[in-house]
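EI: anyone free to look at a 293-residue chain?
SC: sure, send it
EI:
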Amino acid sequence: MRFLLFALTLTTSLSHAVIVPSRTVMLFSAVYSGVRVKSEHVSLSTANLFKNHQEREVSKEWEFRSTSKTINVSHEKFETIRALSDATFRVTPGDDAGSFGTAFHIGEGYILTNQHVLSTSRNNTTQCKSLRMQTGDGKDSFDCERVVYCHREMDFCLIKMKSKKPGLFNRNPRQIQTLPRHRLRATRSPDYAGVFAAIGNPAGQGIHYSEGSGLQPYRRNTWLFFAPVHSGNSGGPLINQAGEVIAVVYAQSKYGVSEDGYNMAVPLYRILEELKEKIAGSEDLRFFENSLL
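SC: here you go
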């Protein structure tokens, strides 16, 4: 199986997580498995994804601080994490059934993800093919209805998904319009010193939540961030402290666990600018604009 998240060289199938110890606020925490609700807190299982598989060695201090199998959060914090995760999905790319990525719902069946999640070969920007999406709890899945617009270089896609037809094993499939949706903010000036969250499907292990401190502008189409991500987080949301999606995760650096590491996301304001230029006057653009805060 292959898991999608690009390195700076745009190479897929990476085998490591990028984690900056001093900027990590919360490690990969499972949202739908290994959750124990207690009277005083909620205990979340952490994924064993932080080991450095590169030449750079993990310091003993970081390895020691990272070996906890659980993280405890308040009930209020878990409710927030769960609500955000309910609108984030596992995705199987249209041209590679052995790969996994992430997407998130913005309403009425529209999702945002990466172009390389739609097409691992990078050749397809217009066709659904066999793209599939599954909810984090694994109870519901959805098919691609149409690709609205993809930008290969910026690495994003706006896609319309559809509900499955009733079948022998699911006579009442969930309607896509009932799915939770993310709140979107196409800001140009986020709180660069704030804490940001990434939600995705790291290493194909299901939906996980992580947090890191800080954001940096890098290029016109890119922000650098430090919430831990792993191959499989491709196409997931980058979320500010207000619980609003401000960017789409698309790449990671090559440094693994180190102070040199960073991850990359395309800001929503750039996606909005591109959609305004390429699908001006469309019903799809009107929906996207109306979805913004």
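EI: The longest strand covers residues 141-151.
SC: 👍
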